[in-house]
């Protein structure tokens, strides 16, 4: 109640406020005058509010608020399910496919998701389809029939009914109200919201400094990369702005919009709660000045867990430049070519299936690391899950069992690919340098002290790395 009365944007996406008298639901920061408490009801998801008969506020657009940080902080069944739903799994594989990925029965998944979210997987996917439809309506010139199919609807009638029910406007009315000129088909310009503050320095600095030529680049003040998506490929350009990330997507198949958006948000850690993270880390007197100097640091993650795992192995015991060179060679030899009229991107990063035919003798690296890479590729093709919905501890155990996988590699993958906010790399050279600079002591002392940073040790890592003067910690020049 206090969050609504204060119009506190930090709680957008945590819950939704429904007004009983108007049958409208809002985000907590909605600028309109708050209703009387007796006329308010609260829902844990937009889908639950829609299922209860409420429609989205036209003023605050609650469907476009940042996602709940809970789904990226936890590794339980519901959190994993929510990450997979956001990635479009229900639309492409159905609830049975979702349950199969999670390793539970359909009934158990539906029961647990409904208990926490107030809506089942189908309703949550429907709410996401409605938001996708709105984005396509407002940002493209697609005919409504094509748009409905691209948004994941089985028929134009279902599309029309859903849009009217959720937004209280017809698709044509939504398009007429949209500001700006629709982009050409396949080119989308989106605003990805986040909770303030956000420090873009390490986020974009890291991605650009470690970027693989042909797959990633920095151009015109934006980080650009290719995406491997369920129905085709895409190219995205991401640029930090005040209050949002400007996102330009070019997709081979518009049905991939939800997955592409979800992966970009995950890449930039946009659903994090930076205030909660910073408040916890600032309780350590040695970290407090670092947090005060750069509040809102995020953890740079990945759009593809398998890709990052391969790159982590290529980066073992070599410089960042050498790791990029190794990766670039793999891309040229085994990546899928793509066209990029707007820049210099040339390939998708090779899939595990494409790397399965890799000749180890062509790799300019020690024999032991070749063996490690081939073991990883075999595990990935055999079903090792490093996706958004993976079980973090099971993935750690599977990786640790592979030859050549020590704590640094496993925790790097846990932090960047799995998204564990508590992943920590005490053996990392950057952490050792920071420990010496700040007077944290040796490795054992750092590990002991890090207990007070939990569950945000991955964020503490970003602050510790920033004590070094490296390009990886700085925002690239425009």
UniProtKB/TrEMBL annotation:
<dbReference type="Pfam" id="PF02805">
    <property type="entry name" value="Ada_Zn_binding"/>
</dbReference>
<keyword id="KW-0804">Transcription</keyword>
<protein>
    <recommendedName>
        <fullName>DNA-3-methyladenine glycosylase II</fullName>
        <ecNumber>3.2.2.21</ecNumber>
    </recommendedName>
</protein>
<keyword id="KW-0808">Transferase</keyword>
<dbReference type="InterPro" id="IPR009057">
    <property type="entry name" value="Homeodomain-like_sf"/>
</dbReference>
<dbReference type="InterPro" id="IPR010316">
    <property type="entry name" value="AlkA_N"/>
</dbReference>
<dbReference type="InterPro" id="IPR035451">
    <property type="entry name" value="Ada-like_dom_sf"/>
</dbReference>
<dbReference type="Pfam" id="PF12833">
    <property type="entry name" value="HTH_18"/>
</dbReference>
<dbReference type="InterPro" id="IPR037046">
    <property type="entry name" value="AlkA_N_sf"/>
</dbReference>
<dbReference type="InterPro" id="IPR018062">
    <property type="entry name" value="HTH_AraC-typ_CS"/>
</dbReference>
<keyword id="KW-0238">DNA-binding</keyword>
<keyword id="KW-0010">Activator</keyword>
<keyword id="KW-0862">Zinc</keyword>
<feature type="domain" description="HTH araC/xylS-type">
    <location>
        <begin position="79"/>
        <end position="177"/>
    </location>
</feature>
<dbReference type="InterPro" id="IPR018060">
    <property type="entry name" value="HTH_AraC"/>
</dbReference>
<dbReference type="InterPro" id="IPR004026">
    <property type="entry name" value="Ada_DNA_repair_Zn-bd"/>
</dbReference>
<keyword id="KW-0479">Metal-binding</keyword>
<dbReference type="InterPro" id="IPR023170">
    <property type="entry name" value="HhH_base_excis_C"/>
</dbReference>
<keyword id="KW-0234">DNA repair</keyword>
<dbReference type="InterPro" id="IPR011257">
    <property type="entry name" value="DNA_glycosylase"/>
</dbReference>
<keyword id="KW-0489">Methyltransferase</keyword>
<dbReference type="Pfam" id="PF06029">
    <property type="entry name" value="AlkA_N"/>
</dbReference>
<dbReference type="InterPro" id="IPR051912">
    <property type="entry name" value="Alkylbase_DNA_Glycosylase/TA"/>
</dbReference>
<keyword id="KW-0805">Transcription regulation</keyword>
<dbReference type="InterPro" id="IPR003265">
    <property type="entry name" value="HhH-GPD_domain"/>
</dbReference>
<keyword id="KW-0227">DNA damage</keyword>
């Amino acid at each position: 109640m206090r969050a609504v009365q204060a119009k506190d944007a930090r709680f957008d996406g945590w819950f939704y406020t429904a007004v009983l008298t108007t049958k409208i639901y809002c985000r907590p920061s909605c600028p309109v005058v708050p209703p009387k408490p007796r006329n308010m009801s609260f829902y844990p998801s937009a889908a639950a509010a829609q299922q209860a008969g409420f429609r989205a506020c036209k003023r605050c657009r609650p469907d476009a608020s940042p996602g709940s940080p809970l789904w990226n902080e936890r590794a339980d069944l519901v959190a994993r399910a929510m990450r997979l739903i956001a990635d479009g799994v229900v639309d492409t594989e159905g609830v049975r496919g979702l349950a199969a990925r999670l390793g539970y029965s359909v009934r158990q998944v539906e029961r647990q998701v409904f208990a926490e979210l107030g809506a089942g997987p189908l309703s949550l996917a429907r709410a996401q389809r409605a938001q996708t439809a709105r984005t396509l309506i407002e940002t493209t010139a697609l005919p409504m029939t094509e748009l409905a199919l691209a948004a994941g609807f089985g028929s134009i009638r279902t599309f029309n009914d859903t849009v009217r029910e959720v937004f209280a406007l017809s698709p044509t009315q939504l398009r007429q109200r949209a500001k700006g000129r629709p982009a050409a088909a396949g080119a989308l310009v989106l605003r990805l919201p986040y909770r303030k503050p956000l420090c873009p320095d390490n986020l974009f600095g890291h991605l650009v400094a470690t970027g693989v030529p042909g797959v990633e680049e920095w151009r015109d003040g934006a980080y650009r990369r290719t995406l491997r998506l369920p129905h085709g490929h895409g190219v995205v350009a991401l640029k930090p702005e005040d209050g949002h990330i400007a996102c330009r997507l070019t997709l081979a198949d518009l049905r991939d919009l939800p997955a592409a958006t979800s992966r970009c948000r995950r890449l930039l850690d946009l659903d994090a709660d930076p205030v909660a993270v910073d408040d916890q880390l600032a309780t350590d007197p040695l970290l407090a000045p670092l947090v005060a100097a750069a509040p809102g640091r995020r953890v740079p993650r990945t759009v593809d867990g398998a890709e990052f795992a391969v790159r982590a192995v290529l980066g073992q015991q070599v410089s960042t430049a050498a790791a990029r060179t190794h990766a670039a060679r793999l891309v040229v030899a085994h990546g899928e070519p793509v066209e990029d009229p707007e820049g210099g991107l040339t390939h998708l990063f090779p899939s595990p299936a494409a790397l399965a035919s890799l000749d180890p003798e062509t790799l300019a690296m020690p024999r032991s690391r070749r063996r490690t890479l081939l073991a990883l590729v075999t595990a990935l093709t055999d079903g090792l899950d490093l996706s958004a919905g993976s079980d973090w501890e099971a993935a750690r155990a599977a990786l640790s069992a592979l030859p050549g996988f020590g704590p640094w590699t496993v925790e790097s993958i846990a932090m960047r690919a799995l998204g564990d906010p508590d992943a920590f790399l005490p053996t990392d050279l950057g952490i050792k340098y920071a420990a010496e600079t700040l007077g944290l002591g040796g490795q054992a002392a750092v590990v002991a002290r890090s207990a007070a940073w939990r569950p945000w040790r991955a964020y503490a890592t970003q602050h510790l790395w920033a004590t070094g003067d490296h390009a990886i910690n700085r925002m690239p020049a425009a």
